[in-house]
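Propose amino acids for all 115 sites.
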């Protein structure tokens, strides 16, 4: 398939996902739609959706796939600026890490804790 066809597929996939989210009745359904969309683009073992607690400047786990959410909620406490996820929340920027074992700029604490 040509590169242009991949872009058309990705946009159609995104459009279907947005329509599904707009029709969803609750957050659990929305999170499943989001996880399915991500899975259509990349392979992953675990994905987490966080809510930002602006007053405490922390992230709280609200949904996940590939792990037990109750255990994750008890173990994972991320403050702004802490690790890769905290950095993204604080800076409001995208972060791409090619190899979590070779990066020295940002510790990917969340990943390393589950190996």
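Proposal:
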């Amino acid at each position: 398939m040509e590169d242009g066809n991949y872009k058309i597929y990705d946009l159609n996939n995104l459009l279907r996902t947005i329509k599904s989210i707009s029709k969803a009745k609750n957050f659990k359904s929305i999170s499943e739609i989001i996880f399915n969309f991500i899975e259509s683009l990349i392979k992953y073992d675990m994905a987490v959706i966080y809510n930002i607690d602006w007053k405490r400047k922390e992230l709280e786990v609200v949904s996940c796939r590939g792990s037990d959410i109750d255990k994750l909620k008890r173990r994972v406490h991320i403050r702004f600026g802490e690790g890769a996820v905290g950095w993204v929340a604080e800076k409001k920027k995208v972060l791409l890490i090619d190899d979590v074992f070779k990066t020295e700029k940002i510790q990917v604490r969340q990943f390393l804790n589950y190996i």
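The chain is about 50% helix and 15% strand. The radius of gyration is 16 Å.
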